[in-house]
Structures are given as C-alpha cells and as structure tokens.
Amino acid sequence: MWADNWPALTIYTENDPPYVTLDEQGQLEGLTKPRLERFLQAINYSSKDIKVQPWVRAYKEALSQPNVLIFPIAKTPEREASLTYLYRLYNATVYFYRLTERSDIRINNLQAAKKYRVCAVRGDYRAEFLQQKQFARIDLAADSSLNIKKLLAGRCDLAILTEIGMRSKLAQLNEKYERVSIALPLDELDSNLYIAINSSTHPDVIRQLKKRAAAID
C-alpha cells in the first residue's frame, strides 16, 4: 500500500440512510457506495476498513486527528479550515421542508425563513450553515429521523434535508412524502457529499490521495 513509514488511515462514517446503510451482514450499502468503492479501490482499502460511528464522534475525530478520513461530508468554509476534500461521492440539493398542511408558512428567501423554528442535526453542515446565517431558532437533534418526527408532530416549522433524504426518512417512519412540501431550495449551499481527510495529515499522504482520486474519473 503506502511506503512503510507512512501511517495507516482511519476511515469513519455513520449509518445514515439513504447515503450510507448497513445490510444484515454489516456490509456498507447506500447511495454513496458506487463511487466510494472506486475511491477505496484506488487507495487499496476496502469497506471492511471503515469504522461506523455516530456522526458527532466521527466528526470530532476527523477534525482533531491526522490520518483520519470521514464521509459522507459536505463542504463549508469552517470545515475547509480543518479538512481537505479528496473526492466527490454524491450530488445533492438541500431544501427547507414544511408540512403540506402548513400553508401559512410561505418563504421566498433566507431572511423570511429566520422567523421559523428549523430542525437540523447537531454538527451537520446544514446546522452550521444556519448558524453562519444567524438563524436564531434552530432546534438541534442527534439525527434526521428525530427531526422528521418533530416536524410531523408540529414541534418545529421547517426541516432542512435533501429530497432523497426526506423520502428515505419518511419511508422509515411509514409516512408518505406528500405529507411535506418544499418551502425553499437552498441553491447557495453546496450540498454535494465528499470524502475528506484531516488537513494536518502529512502533505505527502494528502498529495498521494488526491492524485489517486483524480485518476478515478
């Protein structure tokens, strides 16, 4: 694999359907799998080398330790200060969602959305985006499924997810997609998902990873 004096890499992810899921044998599946497998093959790793952890724990490790990779992760200016993005795994667009029955919620820009309580995931790039834009009413939870439950129960006004993410979470809860409606697309937010590495990793390692990733496409 690497030269003998190069450190081993630690790769973290979370169980986050539909992007990353675990089958009955514990094998990684999900929407990021096709491009992830190509990346892993390029660096001579396999899915068996990946550690599945809660997002907050995995993210903390990726931000604080060299030689740690994490996926799937979106880009933000704050994250790019500590992480080097290596390879795009999935294209996505994020939306503000409301309950379809909440026809009183009408927003056509970010400023209008600020008066509503917004559900987001703690440590997630969408929560960071809301905080950066000075949203004052952010309701944080440990995962998106909890946020959808809160949205359906009327405990928050808006949830911030991709369409495929919303469809997946609703299906898990045996709820129909028609229960929600798009309130506003967030076109200014880069919601593509990547694999990234802690930027304090040795430059030669990062350079080699980038080189191998660039050769994939």
Secondary structure elements and pairings:
Blueprint: E1 10-13, E2 21-22, E3 28-29, H1 33-42, E4 50-52, H2 55-64, E5 68-73, H3 77-80, E6 83-90, E7 94-99, H4 110-113, E8 118-121, H5 125-132, E9 138-141, H6 144-152, E10 158-162, H7 163-172, E11 180-185, E12 193-198, H8 203-214
Parallel strand pairs: 1-4, 1-5, 8-9, 8-10
Antiparallel strand pairs: 2-3, 5-12, 6-12, 7-10, 7-11
Write a brief caption for the model.
With 217 residues, the chain is α/β, with parallel strands linked by helices.
Question: What does this protein look like?
Answer:
- The protein is α/β, with parallel strands linked by helices and 217 residues long.
- 31% of the residues lie in helices and 26% in strands.
- The protein has eight helices and twelve strands.
- Strands 4-1-5-12-6 form a five-stranded mixed β-sheet, with helices on both faces. The protein has a five-stranded mixed β-sheet with strand order 9-8-10-7-11, sandwiched between helices. A two-stranded antiparallel ribbon has the order 2-3.
- It is globular and about 55 Å long.
- The mean pLDDT is 92.
Average pLDDT, rounded to a whole number, is 92
> Helicity range of the residues?
25-40%
Gross morphology? globular
Proportion of β residues? 25-35%
Number of helices: 8
How many domain regions? 2
Largest sheet: 5 strands, mixed
Q: Could you name the CATH homologous superfamily of the largest domain?
A: Periplasmic binding protein-like II
What string, H for helix and E for strand, traces the elements in order?
Answer: EEEHEHEHEEHEHEHEHEEH
